[in-house]
Amino acid sequence: AILGPPEVNITSCPNCINVTIKLPTSHLRDKGKLLSLTDIYEELDYNITLISLDGEHKRPRQKTTEEVFSTVIEELYPNRNYCVSVEVSASLNRHSTPSPWKCVTADSEAQQGYHAVAVAGALCVSLIIAAVLKCVHAAGFIFPKISFPQSLV
Length: 153
Fold this sequence. Notes:
Oligomer: single chain
Mean pLDDT: 84
Domain Interferon/interleukin receptor: 2-105
Helix content: 10-25%
CATH architecture of the largest domain: Sandwich
Order of helices and strands: EEEEHEEEEEEH
InterPro entries: FN3_sf, Ig-like_fold, Interferon/interleukin_rcp_dom, Type-II_Cytokine-TF_Rcpt
Radius of gyration: 29 Å
Strand content: 25-35%
GO molecular function: interleukin-22 receptor activity
Number of domains: 2
GO cellular component, one term: plasma membrane
Protein name: INAR2 protein
Shape: elongated
């Protein structure tokens, strides 16, 4: 039986990409229940191939016992496009189909910092507007204080 392809999703993080992998389904059943690959093989190997401007890099083979798992590829160049393909195999079965390529651009640290500055700036502007409105209200420009007749005071 040929294993694969796994389901792969990638998201960007500062100078890195986060790869989420869902193992392919098996077609074997036990008492009507569809068996997962971890039910059959217990431990599986996965290989991640990374493509960028520098060319193709095969990451060291790693092992998993989980159906869905994530791994982070770090120390990447910011604002550069990276594509990933994942291949899953087992010690008893090396026949596999790699996942289709998925691509994403790695974030830069600066973009993350910029987001925090933008939020802080918006908060400051809101506070300044609130303070100005409070002063204007206190000075009586908005909702001027109604003067009651002396008999009601």
